[in-house]
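User: Here's a protein and a ligand (S-adenosyl-L-homocysteine). What would the complex look like?
Assistant: Let me lay out the input and then the predicted complex.
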Amino acid sequence: MENIYSITFSRLVDYFLKMGEKKYRAIQLFDWLYVKRVTSFDSITNIKKEIISQLKKDFYFDKIEIINQEEDIDVKKYLLKLSDGETIEAVLMNHDYGNSLCISSEVGCNMACSFCESGRIKKIRNVTSGEMVLELMTIEKAINERISHVVIMGIGEPFDNYNNFCDFISIVNYQKGINLGSRHITVSTCGIVPKIYEFSEFPYQVNLAISLHASNNELRSKLMPINKVYPLEELIKAIKNYISKTNRRVTFEYIMLKGVNDKIENAIELSNLLKEINCYVNLIPYNETNHLQYKRSSKEDILKFYDILKKNNINVTIRREFGSKINAACGQLKTVKENLA
Ligand code: SAH
């Protein structure tokens, strides 16, 4: 038995063809699931009984539940319970261009970045494609509004759960279903190099963001253990390949840690590292967490850093902040049941 929300349109077409049915059955089913949004096979009226009973044998309707919700200006954080009892978080942000949802891709995370709260608990399991779809649909239902943008930047490393997040993109992008534009989807990775190569062949025009956070290997390896496996030279090479294959601009995320990576020499080093790359740098004021050794850089230092990048012709922005009061900001999401208390 498989979660019905995990199956991509093309796999569903194969399923029906194998059954001796026509492709349009898949179109009908996607319409029931993602336009009409029924939550049981019994609500489906235009598909013959025999097919429905076969569907019932092969698939089930999974569910996720909102078990807690916190709010701040323009942001809501949801604690979600998956059907096996594991919990993840998702964060809804209200932008002038629409609702954007930050979803989790894993329960826990193995990347162990030293500044990030989400990696405190090792990965327990993947979040499946169907569960990612349900993160989106459950929250759309709760707010009774459409979500126009999705960022896969919650708990977990999506490139460590590659097939599931690719299937998720394919499912939500399908036009006669949820119809979320691929350019409205952003996926962020800490830099799993072989998957960046694989992703350069991925046939959807989604946005790629890279969590960089350091301007040299020594510093990056201290902050992000993944850098010991895939150092900066290899990461940059993979990104250049991605840009040349896809013609898409990438975003580099750079969190500003007081006295750690926010010095003038870091800004110069970073400018040199990224020159000639078609990219944006997003400077992220650090959200303080229980990793007490890290503090947020001062506004002044962030602006100085910004100016140096600008002078070196690097496209740079400072990220608008959301939800730090309710621990809903980047790096503050957790996979822990105690946060129910
Ligand atoms: N594993 C993926 C997806 C998580 S995205 C990745 O690493 O890209 C979450 C983003 O928030 C990453 O850029 C992460 O490095 C950043 N982040 C983690 N902790 C943070 C914190 N305390 N303050 C600000 N950003 C943080």
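Summary: Residues 129-143 form the longest helix (15 residues).
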